[in-house]
Design brief:
By secondary structure, the protein is of the alpha/beta class. It has two domains: about 140 residues, 3-Layer(aba) Sandwich (Rossmann fold), CATH 3.40.50.720; about 180 residues, Rossmann fold, CATH 3.40.50.720. It is built from 13 helices and twelve strands. It has a seven-stranded parallel β-sheet, with helices on both faces. The chain has a five-stranded parallel β-sheet with strand order 2-1-3-4-5. Helix 1 runs parallel beside helix 12. The longest helix has 20 residues. The relative contact order is 0.15. The structure holds glyoxylic acid. Glyoxylic acid (GLV) binds next to loops. The site of glyoxylic acid (GLV) has 7 residues, from loops.
Length: about 325
């Protein structure tokens, strides 16, 4: 019997091609994610779900899919999946680490530069016909990046890739992580700081932690008040890592100078968000991994992970390795 895979929404062709070679694919060829009902209705008899970060794969979804063996998510973040429950039910979770590292680090750096140098704000000034004076010594001043101090919160793959970029800007680099990375400290010539010290000392703070119970609102009012009034906060990880209400207050009241944000507590960002009206924010719509090459790699990697599990092989992009003890790998396709 052919294994059945439900693909929740439109993905790059390369991912589909891999899945179709081995499985029956129920392809929901739509840009938007499925409604909850649509998702629940379509997974009743599938062996695999290919999803994105916008579909919540929780207890109810897993329980509605009694044949489910593997979930492949086209994302490096897995906060939309109830990992513990999936593992307890023997459901393998594959994801896309590694293939979007450099692309996301590029965006973090783009946000650092564009927020510091007011690139978006001044572009808007020209487009709105408000560029009246050719040049003025005190006009449109921003903050220097070269030689300043960068604080990286979360020194995983992406955090380290941001550090490598910052070295080219001769920045002093500090990091905080719950795991001390002495290998990277030596390689990248960066220094560990407890989080409060990092917040106090940095000119730029870039967040690269996964969203977990521990990291939700990691940056709140107390932390924002520790930052320099000239500091810029950049977040390309997950919105809820920052308490957005507190951030709005910090930006309004000048506790910090600006924020470059690719992720938000609610996505899409509601048009009523005060962040939209602020000149000292640069906002992008969760595009950290959004390049043609990277999205193709992600589509491929998630599909390959699903196929490997169904072939009875352990994929390198398996997130919940303990699952192997709950439901040992078995060959279901050739
Ligand atoms: C994007 O946010 C991802 O987790 O891949």
């Amino acid at each position: 019997m052919k294994m059945k895979v439900y693909v929740t929404r439109r993905i790059p062709e390369i991912g589909l091609k891999i899945l179709r070679e081995y499985c029956e694919v129920i392809y929901r060829d739509e840009l938007a994610p499925p409604t909850r009902k649509e998702l629940l209705d379509n997974i009743k008899d599938v062996d695999a779900i290919y999803c994105t970060l916008n579909e919540r794969i929780d207890r109810e979804v897993i329980d509605s899919s009694p044949r489910l063996k593997v979930v492949g998510t086209m994302s490096v973040g897995v906060d939309h999946i109830d990992i513990d429950y999936a593992t307890s039910k023997g459901v393998y979770i594959v994801y896309t680490p590694g293939v979007l590292t450099e692309t996301t680090a590029d965006l973090a750096f783009a946000l650092i530069l564009s927020t510091a140098r007011r690139v978006v704000e001044t572009d808007r000034i020209i487009r709105e016909g408000k560029w009246k004076l050719a040049w003025a010594p005190t006009m449109m001043l921003g903050y220097e990046v070269y030689g300043k101090t960068l604080g990286i919160i979360g020194l995983g793959r992406i955090g380290a890739a941001v550090a490598r970029r910052a070295k080219g800007f001769r920045m002093k680099i500090l990091y905080y992580d719950k795991i001390r990375r002495e290998d990277l400290e030596r390689e990248l010539e960066i220094e560990f700081r407890e989080i409060d010290d990092l917040l106090r000392e940095s000119d730029f703070i870039s967040i690269h932690v996964p969203l977990t119970n521990e990291t939700r609102h990691l940056i709140g009012e107390r932390e924002l008040r520790l930052m320099k009034p000239t500091a810029i906060l950049v977040n390309t990880s997950r919105g809820p890592v920052v308490d957005e209400k507190a951030l709005v207050k910090a930006l309004r009241e000048g506790w910090i100078a600006g924020a470059g944000l690719d992720v938000f507590e609610e996505e899409p960002l509601p048009p009523t968000s005060p962040l939209i009206e602020m000149p000292n924010t640069v906002l992008t719509p969760h595009i950290g991994s959004a390049t043609y090459d990277t999205r193709n790699r992600m589509a491929q990697y998630a599909a390959e992970g699903i196929i490997k599990v169904l072939k009875g092989e352990e994929p390198e992009n398996l997130y919940n390795r303990e699952v192997v003890k709950i439901r040992p790998l078995t060959k279901l396709i050739d």
